[in-house]
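Hi P.,

Sorry for the delay on this. The queue was packed all week, but I finally got your sequence through. Input first:
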Amino acid sequence: MDEKFLGQGIKFPLQVNRATGKIVMSKESESIKESIYLILKTQKSERFGRYDFGSRLSDYAFMDLTTTWITVMTNEIREDILSQEPRISDVNISVDSQSSKDSLLVYIEYNIIAENKKENLVFPYYRNSENKQREREL
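Then the structure:
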């Protein structure tokens, strides 16, 4: 495993180690998962100086998510992740829209280039503010 390539970064969400008082860092594949999550949670143009960072996922909040719009959304998510996370390849996105009318489960599979290892994560996409509040409380 090439640790320099996988790197490390500040843990997301930001955490402080109570014993040392230092900021907690994430490493390797955990850092990649957090990076993908951060890309999806950041609205494009939200970051000062990096206006192209993030995704337009929040633009889909009030759309009628038909099969066509879900396809457009998954293609856009794939492109955003591949263009902003250079440590991965072969991103596959699938969506479970049947479990709830207020949320979608976005399944993201990807290959870590340095390890040639498949990883995945599930990103809950909440369409209303009540569910977003519940996510913050977790």
